[in-house]
Amino acid sequence: MSIIVLGTVALDTVKTPFGKRRELLGGSAAHFSMAARLFTKVNLVAIVGRDFGQKHTSFLRSKGLNLNSLIVDKGKTFRWEGQYQGDLNSALTLNTQLGVLSVFKPRVSEEQRKIENIFLANVDPDIQEHLLAKMYSPKLVGLDSMNYWINTKRKELIKLLKSVDIYVANDQEARALSGETNLIKAAKGLCSLGPRMILIKKGEHGVLFYNKKFTFSLPAYPVEKVIDPTGAGDTFAGGFMGYLACARKISSCAIKKALAYGTVAASFNVEDFGLFRTSKLTRADLERRLAKFKDCFSF
Amino acid sequence: MSIIVLGTVALDTVKTPFGKRRELLGGSAAHFSMAARLFTKVNLVAIVGRDFGQKHTSFLRSKGLNLNSLIVDKGKTFRWEGQYQGDLNSALTLNTQLGVLSVFKPRVSEEQRKIENIFLANVDPDIQEHLLAKMYSPKLVGLDSMNYWINTKRKELIKLLKSVDIYVANDQEARALSGETNLIKAAKGLCSLGPRMILIKKGEHGVLFYNKKFTFSLPAYPVEKVIDPTGAGDTFAGGFMGYLACARKISSCAIKKALAYGTVAASFNVEDFGLFRTSKLTRADLERRLAKFKDCFSF
Q1: In chain A, where the domains are located
Q2: Of A87, A222, A260, the CB nearest to B217
Q3: What angle do CA B292, A143, A294 make, to 5 degrees?
Q4: Nearest-Cα residue of chain B relative to residue A223
Q5: pLDDT (tens digit per residue) in B216-234
Q6: Top-level CATH class of B3-295?
């Protein structure tokens, strides 16, 4: 089953203890796609400016993505500049230039409106709602957001959550939206807002999954040399949703496997800048590391 | 195989968001023992003052501990007062009264000197060294310490680590002693100081195990209502060392199982104040929760 992802395609300038890279291809939807494409056909819904460059478009197409709904508009591509220090657990945003993102109205083809697996990666909740309203038969809808929207568009976000199956948040966002410090309580609170599954990403500390029937916790795959964590959460979501989109049934076993695939995909993402590592990733790479990861828990 | 644990037996006054309790029986060796006793005979090496109270001694004896080397000296029992806030991940020490701990010279019987499994829980490295020197045939030696000793007795601690098999530290301590931010790098650095196994406790984020052959990571068992985390790390070590003391071989499988037992034991510890929960714990309770925990990773 194919998947449609709405989000940003961006040019990222990133500084980490391992160096600085300028105008790397990035953005939530791009990172998500690099992992999800290993499982299923990915339809990208995003906007870029006229400055985006043919090489980036060709690159995304060469990864098998359907770019029919990638709008190229007059204006500049969304740019983000950030910096990581110390343990690389949180980014300091130095600069954000919305560019064409400020006028983004997602467009999808009739064919794409029939897609049942939908991921609303981090953009303005109004844009997320706009796309979701166009879809004919949502079956599995995931949503990611960020503190900025939790603070400025809380009402819109909470309304949108009623139509969502899976809410993906990092620990800070989960605490901010639920008002709870304990993450299991936070997850419970978020569940009561609508989504039947809550996925809390904790960076190097792994992930917590909650639904009314069970709570799962997985550590991150241990990576010694974290070069650039930008997009790790989106890559995680790509692996998770990509696997579930193909699963016959959303059983507890399928969810655990999806969490493991997401974890392993994210571990590749942080090993190099931008999409460098995940764009070269094969399903076989993923399976090999999954087997190693699984070995950590078999006793 | 029996085990000997050196550490503190204390009277703890603890304030958490769930209330305040005064002069609870606690201390590193007491918490360790409550988990280790579920696997093997535990010999407690510690000191208390004349104010300790017969009821505490009787209580510890009723838990099957060998108290032959629990010194009762003139003076006051070691007291610690601390407070937890917010996510309960770190304690704020409000008051420490060393009492008899300041004159502690561990004594062990001839019989106890033959014990091969030794855990040096958190006390002054000089006291830890003093006990270790008395032991005839150490086979598996674990050591825990704290930032205070890393800062004030670094040289002594580093010397002692050469005679230790397992160094148990929390993430802050591991970073402080190794000078590395990335925890895998920190573990590598600590390994080069002597111990062949490094165990980094990350509180609610679980544990990282490192030796030259493999790196394991386990999440914490998800606990919704953390009442009092005091002693969780010691309880973890008790479960871990207790299991290994009985294992026929320290294989990678035994280590994983020991990590899981430690994790599960610690999850009980945080569910109530002091030793309230772990002192009532049975091996059957532990096994039941271990099965649940294991289920998180079986996919």
Answers
A1: 3-295
A2: A222
A3: 35
A4: B184
A5: 989 999 888 899 999 999 9
A6: alpha beta
